[in-house]
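Whether sequence alone determines local backbone shape is best considered at the level of individual chains. We regard such an encoding as a compact summary of how the chain folds. The sequence in question and its structure tokens are set out directly beneath this paragraph.
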Amino acid sequence: MSMGHFTNSADQRSGLEVVRDWNGVAQLVLRSPKGHSARVSMHGGQVVSWKNDRGEELLFTSSKAIFKPPYAMRGGIQMCFPQFGNSGTLERHGFARNRIWIIDDEHPPTNHNGNGSKATVNLLLKPSEDDLKCWPHCFEFRLRVSLSKDGDLSLKSRIRNVNGKPFSFSFAYHTYLSVDRVYVSSPNVIAVLDHEKKHSFVIKKDGLPDVVVWNPWEKKSKTMVDFGDEEYKQTLCVDAAAVERAITLKPGEEWTGKLELSAVSSTNCSDHLDHPVSI
């Protein structure tokens, strides 16, 4: 699958590689000393690629994905905020995944320095005037994406109420890993086993009590313009989420939700789990 045309440059502050997709949208590339990589788009704050040290892609992206704002690319890890699904009056999965984010100047990007640190990028989203018309609440959404020296991918979201009144929202990391079920009050560590590739995804979460497991399956796949008819066989969405009960923030309060993904050999999977739930 072609991801479009990319041009390369470097962020002078950190040495991080910056590429631009065929729409000119910047993507930041994180790399580990062992050859792992991740790529984060400024469009939606979306993680669009995560590769192991052999260069194998660990996240699914549809061959028919539409790489054109204001639509979210079908695949990777999407930020669903302030709504998940069609549960409210906003567009499906909220507007955060369809907005252009900026680098958080308070926390510049960092690269590996040989001392065991992570390659990290910090992004920031604030509501536009149009956003405030459909959802009249002022917020600051800070997203940190990190890649460890061993290739573990972690995401940390901090959402602060800078409004003068309380507001409520739902949230999910919409993660395409390669069925329609929601696990309420699920354990904080989950394993997804891929017997064919003989590896497992270990998913750790904090501040996110629910897990949404989704696959469009055969019938729905044929109705989706940005998804191949047979691609339901290649992916499974496992979303760390807060959807059953809305999160409410008073003025000045902040919520934090964390996600960590590891790809390990299936034979070593049990070493990472205290109380595993295999999907």
